[in-house]
UniProtKB/TrEMBL annotation:
Protein name (record): Uncharacterized protein
Keywords: Membrane, Transmembrane, Transmembrane helix
Regions that span the bilayer: 65-87
């Protein structure tokens, strides 16, 4: 693969195998659904610690910035929400 960068090579190989990657903007999902997400996190028994919502709000403020920290904060909040929703609504627990 002379003259190709890694991203181009990965796309060519992915297309050859018939696979297509999928990505989404977790930051916008979190921001657009902020009220419901925070309620779900607050209701979860896994996170019953003092200062939780202070930390969640701090991460929201970080998400409004730029750079890798903003993207990481969005992904982390989304993962905390998914775990909270699973724990709160799972019929197997």
């Amino acid at each position: 693969m002379n003259g190709l960068n890694f991203s181009d090579a990965k796309k060519i190989l992915s297309d050859a195998l018939g696979k297509l990657g999928f990505s989404y903007d977790s930051r916008s999902i979190v921001l657009q659904n902020w009220e419901g997400i925070t309620k779900e996190i607050e209701r979860c028994a896994l996170w019953k610690q003092a200062g939780l919502m202070k930390m969640v709000n701090r991460m929201k403020n970080r998400m409004n910035g730029a750079g890798w920290g903003a993207a990481t904060a969005g992904r982390l909040l989304y993962r905390i929400y998914l775990l909270s929703a699973w724990y709160n609504k799972s019929k197997y627990l």
